[in-house]
Design a protein that fits this description.
Distance between the termini of chain B: 15 Å
Oligomer: heterodimer
Order of helices and strands of chain B: HHHHEEH
Strand content of chain B: 5-15%
Largest sheet of chain A: none
Radius of gyration of chain B: 19 Å
Distance between the termini of chain A: 57 Å
Helix content of chain B: 55-70%
């Protein structure tokens, strides 16, 4: 029973760290801001949630402690990390960061609420 | 510079939930401070960070409507409470800032250890909240 629990914990923690590694590779390799945010926010969120679940199971199965703080952390990361990504992406779009050359469609074009008048306003 | 008012629905909706989570966690840190990591200082910082999240999602006027508190008075009250707990030990003939604790049977919690250090910590908590919020509100108003 303890051995099974240890395997479950190890799988969760290793899976979480591998997902975080994939997210960091995605942040390095992808071409523009939006796809980098796409990789970083989703990958890091799921990876951290997996690691925290592993920590929660470790304390529960091996020490008999139900760590409510870790559960709260999972809820909090799940709630706030995508919102942070959304705000960063929107700020990038509004300040005029261009998409990658190969992208086809921009349905939000013309609805930027930041108008670039001078050259210093643009972050390109 | 802004063509239209920015629409912050997602940030504001999540703030409504996250703010209470941060506040609850700061209270937990405050009361856990005696036997676990935590205490007045970090609890005050967490509380003021939840207020700062409100300030980020809404504007200064709305937050002043929600919390109609002058935070300088909060800091002053905290200092007053801390000094009073120090002076209070003179009443029992003990030295300044002496600390006492006892075990009490409370209605819901059962046997609980109550210490006078919590009162001092309350003072620290109020000072930290007051000073942080005063700094941030005064910087934010300089526009």
């Amino acid at each position: 029973m303890i051995e099974t629990a240890k395997i479950v914990i190890a799988v969760f923690i290793l899976l979480g760290s591998l997902i975080c590694l994939a997210a960091s590779f995605g942040t390095l390799r992808l071409p523009d801001v939006y796809s980098r945010i796409h990789a970083a926010s989703k990958g890091a969120t799921l990876g951290i949630i997996c690691v925290l679940l592993g920590v929660f199971f470790y304390f529960w199965f091996l020490h008999g402690i139900i760590a409510a703080k870790v559960l709260l952390g999972i809820v909090f990361v799940f709630l706030t990390s995508p919102v942070g990504a959304h705000l960063i992406a929107r700020a990038a779009y509004n300040t005029g960061v261009k998409m990658e050359e190969k992208s086809v469609q921009d349905d939000y074009e013309g609805y930027r609420n930041f108008v670039i008048k001078k050259k210093e306003d643009s972050y390109l | 510079m802004n063509k239209q008012q920015t629409n912050d629905v997602i940030l504001q909706t999540v703030t409504k939930v996250a703010c209470f989570i941060i506040l609850l966690f700061s209270f937990h840190l405050f009361f856990a401070g005696h036997n676990n990591p935590g205490g007045g200082f970090i609890a005050g910082l967490m509380t003021s960070s939840s207020f700062v999240l409100l300030l980020l999602a809404y504007d200064l006027k709305t937050v002043k409507n929600i919390l109609p508190i002058n935070f300088i008075y909060v800091a002053a009250t905290g200092l007053f409470i801390s000094v009073c707990t120090g002076i209070g030990s003179f009443v029992f003939g003990a030295q300044f800032l002496s600390h006492a604790f006892g075990y009490f049977h409370l209605p819901l919690l059962g046997k609980t250890e109550l210490a006078t250090a919590v009162l001092f910590d309350t003072g620290v908590y109020l000072v930290v909240v007051g000073v942080t919020m005063t700094i941030i509100q005064t910087i934010g108003e300089r526009e």
